Amino acid sequence: MRRDVFQAIADPTRRAIIGLIALQAMTPNALAEHFHTTRQAVSKHIKILTECQILKQQQTGREIYYHFNPKKMKEVADFVEPFRQMWDTKFNQLDKVLNKLKNK
Hints:
The chain is mostly helical. The protein has a single domain (5-103), classed as Orthogonal Bundle (Arc Repressor Mutant, subunit A), CATH 1.10.10. It has five helices and two strands; from the N terminus they run H-H-H-H-E-E-H. The protein has helices at 5-10, 12-23, 28-32, 39-51, 70-103, and strands at residues 55-60, 63-68. Strands 1-2 form a two-stranded antiparallel ribbon. The protein is elongated. It starts with a helix and ends with a helix. The mean pLDDT is 91.
């Protein structure tokens, strides 16, 4: 099953997992230590992030390490960028109007 990346990153726990793994590759057990939840719950979040390719897994001996996939997050950022630019323009225009009103 292919998951929607935007649904995956909508969850605050999954965003926290991404933040941790972006700093360094981690095992599910190491990740679970950062959350007040079960290892099974963390594993479910990892599974969702892996299915939408935000995380990649690598077997090292008996351990599975999860790595951040910046290429996939760049796709998300590229999608969002035009909207950010549009809102920046609108906020800048609003700032100009507010400054004019304030100076009158």
